[in-house]
Amino acid sequence: MKIPRTMEETREVPLLLHELGIRGLLHNQEPIDLITAARLAGRGPRVEIGCFVGLSTCLIAAGTDPEDRILSLDLFTMVGLQGFVNPAVAIIGPELMERPDWLWLWRRNVKAAWPDHRIHFVQGDHLDPQVIAFVRCAVDHSAALLYLDGPHDAPSVNAELEAYLPLCRPGAFVVFHDWAPEFGVYEVVNRWVDDGRLIEYWPGYLYVARKP
């Protein structure tokens, strides 16, 4: 695949990924918005929390210079699904129940779409102090994009922002999946925007903010 340079090319990316067999839980306008946010973020590292089988990773890569590092954090196991088992089985297939670890599938998908990008996985609890310290060393407080699609309860989302927003440079893009009243993401994002700790860029189910 090649980096899209126009909106027409950008709209083709989800179709091309689908042809490669890469599925995920981003739908309708969300893939386009994620590519666009990654492109607008400019040069610099990207940090992704919750990457499932790699669709979001590949979309972020589509808006990222191949020389910029992407760090994808996930447990890559059923433990991290928290209520999304049925959609996961629909995407991966019934073998997920027999082989509840999909790091192999993430690797396959990312390699198929972007073999030349600097994309690295971090398998583990993203709120583990050792994991946070590793990411801090890797991005050196210069992350240009932070994508959050981990646990959706309010305490977890708040903890993610407390831990990872300091690793982003001023003006960095912060993207949240599932910004909707039924999820804790909604409450936390609204509070952080009201407090001035985030700046709303464009709202939607895929909510895009910026670091002040």
The domain count comes to 1
pLDDT < 50 stretches: none
End-to-end Cα distance: 34 Å
Please outline the major beta sheet: 7 strands, mixed
Mean pLDDT: 91
- Based on the coordinates given, report the CATH architecture: 3-Layer(aba) Sandwich
Q: Structural class of the helix and strand makeup?
A: alpha/beta
Annotation, overall tally of beta strands:
7
CATH topology category name: Rossmann fold
Provide the gyration radius in Å.
16 Å
Helix content: 25-40%
What order do the strands of the largest sheet run in, or round the barrel if closed?
A: 3-2-1-4-5-7-6
CATH superfamily: Vaccinia Virus protein VP39
Q: Tell me the name of the CATH class.
A: Alpha Beta
Q: What share of the residues does DSSP label as strand, in percent?
A: 15-25%
Helix tally? 8
Give the H and E element order: HHEHEHHEHEHEHEE
What does the overall shape look like?
A: globular
How would you describe the overall organization of this protein?
The protein is an alpha/beta fold and about 210 residues long. It has helices at about 5-20, 30-40, 55-60, 85-90, 105-115, 130-140, 155-165, 185-195, and strands spanning about 45-50, 70-75, 120-125, 145-150, 170-175, 200, 205-210. The chain has one domain (about 5-210): Rossmann fold. Helices cover about 40% and strands about 20% of the residues. A 7-stranded mixed beta sheet has the order 3-2-1-4-5-7-6, sandwiched between helices. α7 (about 155-165) packs across α8. The longest helix has 13 residues, at about 5-20. The protein starts with 6 loop residues before the first helix and ends with a strand. The model has no long low-confidence stretch (mean pLDDT about 90).
